Amino acid sequence: MFWQKTALIALILTLTACLQTENSSSLDAAMYGGVGGTPEFQAARTVMSQSCNGCHAYHTQTEAQLIAAGLIVAADPEASQIYYRLVGSTGIEGPKDMPQGGALSSSDAEVIAAWIENLTP
Ligand code: HEC
Q1: Which of 56, 78, 85 to mutate to test the pocket of ligand 1 (most atoms within 8 A of CB)?
Q2: Do residue 61 and residue 45 come from a single domain?
Q3: Domain range for 107
Q4: For residue 32, is pLDDT > 70?
Q5: 57 and 27 within one domain
Q6: Domain tally for the chain?
Q7: Average pLDDT, whole number, for the chain?
Q8: Potential cystine with 61: which of 11, 65, 95, 103 (Cβ 3.0-4.6 Å)?
Q9: Averaged pLDDT for residues 86-99
């Protein structure tokens, strides 16, 4: 009788642990649009959540949504509004006006560029 109770408690504890793991990953999914993404995407998302969040919700969108919205072009940062509006363009004069009322460090801009460059067209 005693060992049965112990086994039952152990089973309940194991199940509870599994449920907790599942809860935290579904929370991530809810927060990040259902995608984990590459490390480059995670890093870019962190920059966007810190520097663009007050005015845009880019960090809550998936790569596919950002591409569909015409905000990024896979493997082409300069053609991607999200990068182009940060740094202008080396080819043609760019607007270089985001984040509005602030500035992004060049290392943060590099994080955005690296993410877009790594996307498969
Ligand atoms: C203080 C508010 C503010 C912040 C912060 C800000 N933006 Fe914007 N952004 C705007 C406004 C307003 C517009 C629309 C006017 C325009 O296009 O210039 C805009 C437009 C844009 C556009 C053109 C497409 C669109 O969605 O309208 C892009 C791309 C963009 N922002 C990127 C960024 C990125 C990337 C960041 C963070 C690094 C950022 N912005 C931070 C206010 C902001």
Answers
A1: 56
A2: yes
A3: 35-117
A4: no
A5: no
A6: 2
A7: 78
A8: 65
A9: 73
What spacing in Å lies between the alpha carbon of 52 and ligand 1's midpoint? Answer: 7
Mean pLDDT of 25-40: 59
pTM for this prediction: 0.76
**Ligand 1 centroid to residue 22 C-alpha, Å:** 35
Q: pLDDT tens for residues 55-89?
A: 999 999 999 999 999 999 999 998 999 998 998 76
Taking the CA of residue 83 as reference, the ligand 1 atom at the shortest distance is 35
72 and 43 together in one domain: yes
Helix (H), strand (E), coil (C) string for the chain:
CHHHHHHHHHHHHHHHHHHHHHHHHHHHHHHCCCCCCCHHHHHHHHHHHHHCCCCCCHHHCCHHHHHHCCCCCCCCHHHCHHHHHHHCCCCCCCCCCCCCCCCCCHHHHHHHHHHHHCCCC
- 48 alpha carbon – ligand 1 mean position (Å): 11
Q: Is 38 in the pocket of ligand 1 (CB under 6 A)?
A: no
